[in-house]
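hey
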């Protein structure tokens, strides 16, 4: 069998969010369109997701959540992780509390450890990888706690969301482009922290420019083109892109396959009041965008493209 040009981990995020999400992700896996999933252990259907993963032998990691819904840990007294209603502060609210200096990092650590333990209770094993819901794991200070937790549990892989081609993508609206640019900046600053703790990640990250309605065969092929064109230095296996590179692509050439992760969010639309992480499903989960991703990922033309271009779908453990 010829050597693949790209070893691609296609990760279905938000597994456990609701039963319809779980069924869509599992359908994608069974169709050969997703090779790996990330579990929200505080999701309303986390137990169902773990059962599906066990039944179908779906490779599964932890989607650590500090921003949506309710916590897993039972921390005494008022927690800086929570708002007055007892929920996490939200994607931007969490960032505001962190920037204000009011976030207790000991509480962050306790919650992350509780989520790893809950994952083990649900699945019977440690996660093969651990990333952050809404990219909270690369935020200042949080990244240090996150890396220490991964190191302590011996979880070897994470995600560094620096996407080549992001700044040249015309389909990303300005407000998302601003958010993604900040995510990229935080991710690049996380490289040395993760490296110092012996944590690894694929050579190329993809998925910001292909979310929801932006996912199409054309956009996926465009994004995958960066992985196909990547030239990586000898001996640099699963390491970070250079910190002075906006593309994450390094030189010179080598014969080994490029490793890449494609973040996706397939599923069937959530029904009102069913699912979520303690507050019900959000608008994106109830939209047709989830099913649009599912159908695009299962498209035979995309699966043929993988074969034609030497893109081999795999898991983090395979790397």
């Amino acid at each position: 069998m010829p050597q693949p040009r790209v070893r691609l981990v296609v990760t279905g995020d938000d597994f456990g969010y609701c039963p319809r999400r779980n069924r869509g992700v599992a359908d994608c896996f069974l169709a050969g369109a997703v090779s790996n999933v990330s579990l929200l252990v505080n999701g309303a259907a986390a137990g169902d997701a773990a059962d599906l993963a066990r039944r179908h032998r779906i490779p599964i990691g932890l989607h650590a959540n500090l921003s949506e819904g309710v916590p897993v840990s039972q921390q005494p007294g008022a927690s800086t992780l929570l708002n007055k209603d007892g929920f996490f502060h939200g994607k931007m609210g969490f960032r505001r509390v962190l920037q204000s200096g009011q976030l207790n990092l000991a509480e962050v650590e306790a919650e992350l450890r509780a989520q790893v333990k809950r994952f083990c209770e649900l699945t019977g094993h440690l996660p093969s990888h651990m990333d952050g819901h809404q990219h909270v794991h690369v935020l200042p200070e949080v990244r240090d706690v996150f890396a220490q937790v991964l190191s302590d549990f011996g979880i070897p892989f994470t995600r560094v969301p620096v996407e080549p081609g992001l700044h040249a993508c015309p389909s990303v609206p300005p407000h998302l482009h601003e958010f993604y640019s900040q995510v990229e900046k935080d991710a690049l600053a996380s490289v040395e922290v993760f490296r110092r703790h012996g944590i690894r990640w694929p050579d190329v990250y993809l998925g910001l420019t292909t979310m929801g309605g932006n996912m199409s065969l054309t956009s996926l092929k465009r994004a995958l083109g960066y992985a196909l064109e990547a030239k990586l230095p000898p001996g640099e296996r699963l390491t970070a892109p250079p910190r002075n590179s906006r593309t994450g692509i390094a030189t010179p050439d080598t014969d080994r396959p490029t490793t890449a992760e494609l973040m996706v969010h397939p599923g069937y639309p959530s029904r009102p009041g069913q699912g979520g992480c303690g507050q019900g499903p959000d608008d994106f989960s109830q939209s047709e965008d989830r099913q649009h991703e599912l159908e695009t990922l299962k498209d035979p033309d995309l699966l043929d493209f993988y074969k034609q271009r030497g893109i081999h779908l795999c898991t983090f453990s395979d790397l």
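The beta strands are 6-15, 36-39, 60-64, 130-132, 204-206, 258-264, 311-313. The chain has ten helices and seven strands.
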